[in-house]
Design brief:
Blueprint: E1 2-5, H1 6-16, H2 23-31, H3 36-48, H4 51-54, E2 55-58, H5 61-65, H6 68-85, H7 91-104, H8 107-117, H9 127-141, H10 150-169, H11 187-190, E3 192-194, H12 201-204, H13 243-246, E4 247-249, H14 254-260, H15 273-287, H16 296-314, H17 319-323, H18 329-334, H19 346-350, H20 355-384
Parallel strand pairs: 1-2
Antiparallel strand pairs: 3-4
């Protein structure tokens, strides 16, 4: 019997009931198992559809993490969400936000930042600079970004710059909400195991070439199957080892336990430090009276585009890793200037008022899942055939 992930099982249930109203199932797939009732519902539907007789359904963390279908779904959802949400951000607001953040950078870091941007200093010797400079390059030239207008690309470029600046400002004592080394953000509880930083023939095989660490956007690992005509595939590889290939997890740590308890979310690089950096920047500008995204109508689209752009390009974090930062009590307390901030979550941000984009990503994922499981079934049957001596 072929073994599948719990997430793949939910996808098959959704496909089984595709001609019926299944909004609750879709939300459950997006958010994962959050209660006993959720788990009992899926177990009931697995029996009702007979899928539990066709597949061995696993809740093992390794199986969940290595599930390419979920990583495929989140990457497509990020892209589809970006296509519509980017137009909801005002370019003037984004420019004001970027300019205000830029002025907070210490002079020495500002000079380094400028030198990277204008190409005076090569970025390959700095992992963060390398990632963001490659993002600018792909944004300007990669076919996966052709669906975006020049104005939209300008907005995406500013978002990438703001994300980069956030990492530079995090070390400054005047930036509020420093919750590093507390709770999930303590290094021990984040559960990150760095596998490899630099690639070589030793780590990637004798045919290894610089610039071909991975041909996949988003959360997809380098060895996971992706059609060459898919928006996720890029012929021009990434010039660094991407986070999905760089990091593994320690299941003894608190964050991986929390992450995998939902039975669907992959682990990319643990709860997001990049998101925390940006949240701290947002709060700093709000304190200074300089925050353009000062209400829900402006804040929500910025948040959608921020997490979707970073997930699609580098796959540094899953949606769950990004959005769990917003659940930290101190952050909820300090963002009371945003109406209904505690209600912002993966459902309100990526499903509500985003169903067309969600359904597009989900339908593509179901097609991908069927093809993937068919190959897996064929492989299983070949292994089960009796050997002829």
């Amino acid at each position: 019997m072929v073994e599948i992930s719990f997430g793949q099982a939910i996808l098959l249930i959704i496909d089984y009931y595709k001609n019926q109203k299944n909004m609750d199932l879709k939300k459950l797939y997006l958010d994962g198992i959050t209660s006993k009732n959720d788990l009992q519902l899926i177990q009931h539907l697995l029996k009702k559809t007979n899928l539990n007789q066709q597949y061995k359904i696993s809740i093992n963390a390794e199986i969940i993490n290595e599930d390419p279908t979920r990583r495929y779904f989140e990457t497509h959802l990020a892209f589809e969400t970006l296509l519509t949400s980017i137009d909801k951000i005002d370019l003037d607001d984004l420019t004001l936000y970027y300019d205000a953040l830029y002025k907070l950078i210490p002079q020495d870091d500002q000079i380094k930042f400028d030198n990277y941007l204008c190409g005076k200093v090569p970025a390959y010797d700095n992992l963060i600079a390398n990632e963001y400079m490659d993002a600018f390059y792909k944004l300007a030239s990669n076919k996966s970004y052709r669906a975006f207008s020049e104005n939209e690309k300008n907005k995406l470029s500013l978002i990438f710059r703001c994300a980069w600046i956030g990492t530079l400002l995090a070390k400054l004592p005047e930036i509020p909400l420093n919750v590093y080394n507390v709770g999930f953000f303590s290094e021990q509880q984040r559960g990150r195991l760095i596998k490899v930083i630099e690639a070589s023939a030793e780590t990637h095989g004798k045919n290894f070439q610089v610039g071909y660490y991975s041909n996949h956007f988003g959360l997809m690992k380098s060895y996971m199957p992706v059609p060459k005509n898919d928006i996720i595939f890029t012929k021009k590889g990434f010039p660094f080892i991407r986070p999905p290939d760089r990091v593994n997890f320690d299941l003894n740590a608190a964050w991986p336990k929390q992450n995998f308890s939902s039975l669907v979310h992959p682990f990319s690089c643990s709860i997001s430090g990049t998101m925390l950096c940006q949240i701290r920047c947002l709060k700093k500008l709000q304190e200074n009276g300089q925050l353009p995204f000062h209400n829900s109508d402006k804040f929500i689209p910025f948040l959608q585009c921020f997490i979707s752009s970073l997930l699609f390009n580098s796959g540094g974090h899953s949606f769950n890793e990004f959005l769990s930062v917003l659940k930290i009590p101190k952050i909820i307390e300090e963002f009371d200037f945003i109406d209904d901030f505690p209600k912002i979550n993966i459902i309100t941000l990526l499903f509500n008022n985003n169903e067309l984009q969600f359904n597009s990503a989900l339908n593509n994922t179901i097609v991908y899942t069927k093809a993937y499981l068919a190959k897996k079934q064929m492989h299983f049957e070949l292994l089960e055939r009796p050997q002829i001596n």
